[in-house]
Amino acid sequence: MKQISYENEYEEIEGTFGSDYSGDVVTKSNYRIVKKLLNNCKGIYDVYGDFGTYGITYNPNEISKDTRKKIDEIVKAIESYPALDDKDVAQLESELIKSAFED
Hints:
alpha+beta; 17% strand
């Protein structure tokens, strides 16, 4: 998956965007899950920016019908329940707590 600057104009996959100042553990977990699910899909981009901005976006003109279907399924899942994978959320919480104690 390519990385792009947040300044580009693509469509965001809701529930995958955050930064050092916004987002939460669920958002960061969704970002990790969606990044894995769409890693080899054309037209999908890993967004980065200032202050730790992260997210997954796509160019509607570059994606296939199958990728569009995957995105729609992901968005629908996030709309019905914020976390795509509760186990990943718990694992990320553990990683963050461990990191905070090590610092």
